[in-house]
Each structure stands twice: as C-alpha cells, then as structure tokens.
Amino acid sequence: MDFTLEFEKPVHELESQIKDLKEANNKSDLDINKEIGALQTKVDSLLKGIYENLNPWERVQLSRHPKRPHALDYIEILIEDFHEIHGDRRFSDDPSLIAGFGYFKGQKVAVMGIEKGRKTQDKIKRNFGMARPEGYRKALRLMRMAEQFDIPIISFVDTPGAYPGIGAEERGQAQAIAENLEEMFGIKTPMIAAIIGEGGSGGALGIAIADRVHMMEYSVYSVISPESCASILWSDPKRAEQAANSLKLDPRKASELKIIDSIITEPVGGAHRDILFAANQLSLTIESNLKELKLLSKEDLLEKRYDKFRAMGNETIIIGED
C-alpha cells in the first residue's frame, strides 16, 4: 500500500513519472535514459530541499510514517541470535515492549524496545506502541538480569507515550515508570538508548535513562505528544501542529539542550527509503559507544550517567500563541 505525506507529494509525482519512463524504456526501442537521468537529478534536488527544511510538525508526521523501521526491524538487522523473554512475573506479558538477549557484533547484549506493529492485527496486539505497566516491569526484569551478568543494554524507543487506559492505571502505570526511572540510574552496566521514531513522554523515558541517548535524524523526543499538548493548553487536539512547532520538536534543539548525545544520520527522505543505511549508521554509533563505556569503572559509569541528566535543559522553552 502506497502512503505519501502532504509535503512529499511533489517528490512522489516525479518518482511516479520516472517509474513510468523506465517501464516505457524497457518496452520500446527508444533510448530515454537521458530524460530519466534529468528527472532523477530533479528528484534528488527536491528531496534535499524538502527534508533539510522540515518544520517540527512535518518531523512528527515523518516519525510516524507507516513504512518507518520499527524496533523489531532494527533488532532483526543488528542483533544476532535474539531470544525474547516474556512476562513481568506479576500480571502478564506486554507484547508492545520487546525484551530479550542476543549478540551485537559478537558482544552479548540485552535488548529492549517498544514496538508499534505493522499490520492492523499486529498494531492491536502491540497496542500501537503504548506500553502497559507489565511492559515496563518486564523491561526492568531484563535490566536487572543484564546487570547481574554484566551485559550491556541497548534500547530502541518508539512510542507516542505509555498507555493511559483505566486498566493500566489500576495496575500501577505511573509507579512502574517511576520505578524504572529510579532504578535505571543505578544499573551497573553500560546502557545505550536510541529514539528511532517517536519518543513520547514518560512512556519513552521509562526505557531511555542511559549513558548515551541518540535520536535518529527524523525522530522526535518530547515530554508530551503534540495532540495531548494542544488538548491541555487550548482544549483542542486539532491544534497539534501549532503545539509541535511551539515545542520545537527537532533533534538539533534536543542536542542543544543536552537531552541527547548525537543525531544519527538517515537517508534523505527518512529511514524507510533505505533501511539498511539507517541501520548501519545506528550500528556504528552503538559500536563506538560500547567501546567507550566498557573502559569506565562501574562507579564512573553511574556518576557520569547521573551528571548527564543533571546537566539537561539549561534553557526554558515558553509555549505561547506564536
């Protein structure tokens, strides 16, 4: 199924023309490779111009692109011999939060990630990437095991936020996230987190207290989703675009505020245009981080992690009408 965002339509139209020309070129004796090349050059230039100048709301839309790689996509590409664990040992298993062990370039690692699902039934199963308290407790179980055996932890974050349903609240959603936040500051093993799509609210932070936190180039990371922000400020979720622009949802701003350590390059147009390229860029970052963090003593690791989060956000962002 084809899917095109509003600001992508000019590119999509040209790409459709190129596809038609290539088919015609294969079926006829005419050589139109020159025309195809000229159109491709135009597409490349247009892509660069559009994606270098995205506004925050367009970044939000791109971070939610239906074809964008999810946690399981990166796990499949980057992690060998992955074995998933299930259940929180209290209530049930949460399919929206993936947790397990595998190998990254020969190194044993613990992996956790929030998975949105791809097709309709899978999205329902994964609760559209909104984890429940049992999911966060499962993640904490994984982290405690990783600490016990001195195994580094890799976290893939992609969620609009933790599930706010009555059942989740009854089972202690806020407490589960708070417990993760507290304990992650004391986990004595290297931790690396990557925002691969949406990083929404405490639902994202519940698995993102790490020694190194990175954002994919076209991802977003925020204390609240634009729709929820607009509902609270103006009682109108339809003003989500205004909220996104006011929140300045841009990895460059997050880097400036020291919320993240780096921005991981994506192919022009988003990771879904070349998943292997995006995965390779992510892999290079993780590999470099692991080498750096393994050199630190456990005491230095925890101290630097604590100092990192204390240094965040030395600037106040005021959300207003403009």
Instruction: Supply the helix-strand structural class.
Output: alpha/beta
Low-confidence stretches: none
Q: What's the helical proportion of residues?
A: 40-55%
What does the average pLDDT come to?
89
Number of separate strands: 8
Which properties best describe this structure?
single chain, 322 residues, alpha/beta, 8-stranded mixed sheet, globular
Structure overview:
The chain is α/β, with parallel strands linked by helices and 322 residues long. It contains 14 helices and 8 strands. Strand 2 and strand 3 (107-114) form a beta hairpin.
Give the SSE map.
Layout (H helix, E strand, L loop, with lengths): L8 H19 L5 H19 L4 H8 L7 H8 L1 E5 L12 E8 L2 E8 L5 H6 L7 H16 L4 E7 L6 H5 L2 H12 L6 E10 H5 L6 E5 L3 E3 L3 H9 L5 H8 L3 H6 L5 E3 L10 H19 L4 H13 L12
Parallel strand pairs: 3-4, 4-5, 5-6, 5-7, 6-8
Antiparallel strand pairs: 1-2, 2-3
Concise account of the structure shown:
This protein is an alpha/beta fold and about 325 residues long. Helices cover about 50% and strands about 15% of the residues. The chain has helices spanning about 10-25, 35-50, 55-65, 70-80, 120-125, 135-150, 165-170, 175-185, 200-205, 225-235, 240-245, 250-255, 275-295, 300-310, and strands at about 80-85, 95-105, 105-115, 155-160, 190-200, 210-215, 220, 260-265.
